[in-house]
Amino acid sequence: xxxxxxxxxxxxxxxxxxxxxxxxxxxxxxxxxxxxxxxxxxxxxxxxxxxxxxxxxxxxxxxxxxxxxxxxxxxxxxxxxxxxxxxxxxxxxxxxxxxxxxxxxxxxxxxxxxxxxxxxxxxxxxxxxxxxxxxxxxxxxxxxxxxxxxxxxxxxxxxxxxxxxxxxxxxxxxxxxxxxxxxxxxxxxxxxxxxxxxxxxxxxxxxxxxxxxxxxxxxxxxxxxxxxxxxxxxxxxxxxxxxxxxxxxxxxxxxxxxxxxxxxxxxxxxxxxxxxxxxxxxxxxxxxxxxxxxxxxxxxxxxxxxxxxxxxxxxxxxxxxxxxxxxxxxxxxxxxxxxxxxxxxxxxxxxxxxxxxxxxxxxxxxxxxxxxxxxxxxxxxxxxxxxxxxxxxxxxxxxxxxxxxxxxxxxxxxxxxxxxxxxxxxxxxxxxxxxxxxxxxxxxxxxxxxxxxxxxxxxxxxxxxxxxxxxxxxxxxxxxxxxxxxx
Amino acid sequence: xxxxxxxxxxxxxxxxxxxxxxxxxxxxxxxxxxxxxxxxxxxxxxxxxxxxxxxxxxxxxxxxxxxxxxxxxxxxxxxxxxxxxxxxxxxxxxxxxxxxxxxxxxxxxxxxxxxxxxxxxxxxxxxxxxxxxxxxxxxxxxxxxxxxxxxxxxxxxxxxxxxxxxxxxxxxxxxxxxxxxxxxxxxxxxxxxxxxxxxxxxxxxxxxxxxxxxxxxxxxxxxxxxxxxxxxxxxxxxxxxxxxxxxxxxxxxxxxxxxxxxxxxxxxxxxxxxxxxxxxxxxxxxxxxxxxxxxxxxxxxxxxxxxxxxxxxxxxxxxxxxxxxxxxxxxxxxxxxxxxxxxxxxxxxxxxxxxxxxxxxxxxxxxxxxxxxxxxxxxxxxxxxxxxxxxxxxxxxxxxxxxxxxxxxxxxxxxxxxxxxxxxxxxxxxxxxxxxxxxxxxxxxxxxxxxxxxxxxxxxxxxxxxxxxxxxxxxxxxx
Amino acid sequence: xxxxxxxxxxxxxxxxxxxxxxxxxxxxxxxxxxxxxxxxxxxxxxxxxxxxxxxxxxxxxxxxxxxxxxxxxxxxxxxxxxxxxxxxxxxxxxxx
Lengths: 487, 479, 96
Ligand SMILES: [Mg+2]
Ligand SMILES: [Zn+2]
What we know:
The structure holds 3 protein chains of 3 kinds. By secondary structure, chain A is of the alpha/beta class. Chain A has helices at 9-17, 23-41, 49-64, 106-113, 156-163, 180-186, 220-230, 274-289, 305-320, 339-350, 353-366, 371-392, 418-422, 429-433, 462-474; strands at residues 44-47, 75-79, 117-122, 169-174, 189-192, 212-217, 260-264, 293-297, 398-402, 438-446, 449-456. Chain A has a single domain, classed as Amidase signature (AS) domain (Amidase signature (AS) enzymes, Alpha-Beta Complex), CATH 3.90.1300.10. Chain A starts with 8 loop residues before the first helix and ends in a 13-residue tail after the last helix. Chain B is an alpha+beta fold. Chain B folds into 3 domains: 4-291, no CATH class; 300-411, no CATH class; 420-478, Orthogonal Bundle (Arc Repressor Mutant, subunit A). Helix content of chain B is 39%, strand content 20%. The B-C interface holds B 18-20, 24-27, 32-40, 43, 45, 51-57, 74, 77, 83, 85, 132-134, 137, 139-145, 251, 262-264, 267, 270, 272, 274-275, 277, 279-283 and C 13-14, 16, 53-54, 59-70, 72-74, 77-78, 83, 85-96. Magnesium ion (MG) binds at residues 11, 154, 196 of chain B.
């Protein structure tokens, strides 16, 4: 059997349970696909072949004994932002090139507990700071639909890996769109859960009040299955929320009739590529046919979400990344003259340009004399944006719009101007500022490049958001398309 | 009157006596091997997150209630950002705009007996840093992060202290209080209780504060006093020579008895405080505050007032006896056995007992002389079995040997002689042996009375009842 | 809002980042542009609006029981350290 890679995660888990094939066979096949793709896509930073095969053998024994969890024997990959015990965890940075985590992130431990097999760690923008996966110390990730283009970011390695079917699912994180934007650009499903739904423990922090772990998959049903295993309260994360995890898989088939969908007026603005808009409008039409009721809603403060983000996220990151000082772990410069030299050169050499830019921006907006004008002002506007969302969810069940303004762009096209790059996340950042769950699903193509539809729901409405995404995928086949060369 | 007025505010750091750290499950015990008590959270490892220790919160609330402060219904942890090798995350988690305790006060007694109320601006929770070790490491500094993450409460006074002496009195008062509350072991040598002193001077009568220097990490009362006195003199010198005091952080060097500017902090600090996004607001409901209130012990001032009235003691004695909860408890145990003589008990507890402890550097609770034993000795003074003077000898023997007062008195035959006939017999002998002195006395040399007392005491090995002896001797000598 | 060379140098010093003289003008340019861009926030009227530092309002900090859960693992943790001796992390001599 050689078409495992065209099966969904859900199908693979069922096939393993039914013992139609073994985990070792499956894992070996996917590892081979990873190896074969690496030169073209650069989706992985580390591949843990030996451990994966050993784990797969163990999974097969568990399956043979009738034991095992929901994902026993299923191969997955982790974004290299998640700490994995005994495995190098780099966060895409020279700073952590030699860092071997002594512990597992909660997400990693939970998926391990559910039986999933890790095949490796995926490439990403350095410290998750980027929208194109070009800032990695390990080189840019390439888009499987066209290797001249970016896959989006920061979870570009996970997105490219799932799009090219190198793994059926990969974990990812989303601080300003880092799951949804690469999902859109790579033609897959990307879910960013409610802030606090998935533990942040062991996920290397970029901006703590915005970061949320999630998943990239080929379908909403697969995302539901993954989320069910990843989510839940964690005593190690003070911001994790102690509320029961519903069975997202069981909720998938709820009827859609009567779903009140708000179309975000601010998302259909002049920045949106006309063809992109057309694909999104077609998708919305399909929703109407499925029984949804569409209305337009306005979130007047939403256009300020990118400026808010580029104050709040750098501020938090400037502090979060202070621990990388060359003393306890990570990169240390050669022959430091004194302590100050040790700090300045270890950090100056260990961090890449974009990370340094954000640390400096954050340092500036928090510094004496600027804190009120930038940081506090941004947090106040964030409150206004949050209030806009709350108001909107008073009248609609979910909000829909484009995930990105354009399809994937060329590698190098936006690296010279940070603002152009930052504007990629114009439609995704709002959900992070307000902590909302959101999903991006493929809804068509523009010049052979995938386009994403974004669905945003109120806090803890993952079941509803996934249900809406799943209904669309039952009525369409965009999510089954695989890039040429990887089919 | 000096032309200058000294203005001092203290920031006291008290390590809270929790078992585990403020944001991690690492132990807080003192003296562990380097970094043996530093876990991933304490080391600031990538990806880890803080979770707040309930007991640290309860202890801070307890302190707040004891100083009649406002307990914040909602307080917020913030990050204080700066780089230092003993600060693993590059920021200290502390409280800034919204501390857990605000606007309290503590009364101190000045030398002239006046009571002065010192305002406590705030008390906030924060984590301690680790330690840098310089000795025995050529060219490098070693970092031990065992202390990193130990819970601290920082108690910030108003700048209302006017001399080094007042500052020490206030600091001792806080020291007494935190030990009463059992929220801090108060061990200053181990750094469990230490302070930063903000010191400035201004022309007497001026309203505007002078430029201050902050003297960091003073860990003994003596150092606090010396450092402030040195610093005040230094600043007055500067001002009198027409120069200006520089606002800076200084260190006290106990070997030289001087303060000096800290080199590593020369660069202007910009701490970039902002709310810690890894922690949520700490919300304290009435029920929690009430449950902490229920654990409040009788506080030092309350106890001193009660001692003064219940045991008819002077304010001074009551203050000394209540300076520690253990000493006060010891005293009350003694008085329980000796209800009719609280003053005698006070004198002995503050006198012989405290001196003996001091000499051997022992704690009240060392068990060396249980209160019932001391009461047993005092009882023998009351019932005139022994004199106060003999009692001191018995005390020495009891202290070193551990026997009861009665056993010592019996074994050494120290029982007081109260038999009139026996005392008279000795007086007669002494008079017979000293005819010349007797004649002189009778001729009017009254001073010789003491000589005869001494002779009788010598002959009875000090055991004659002094009052009886006086009376009998006076009569016999008169002839 | 144009940042000067000196401002970039002092921000970099505060953030402990060594920048080459070639890097300074690059950051001067991009940080200035970013600050201009976020200057759009001034347009919003935030009178009487409280700053929002957590995405889930109304939650409060959970408290952990005061229990020691950790053991001595310093050798394992120090496997990642650039320089250690006798259980201590080493840095160039710090003079206070
Ligand atoms: Mg202080
Ligand atoms: Zn402090």
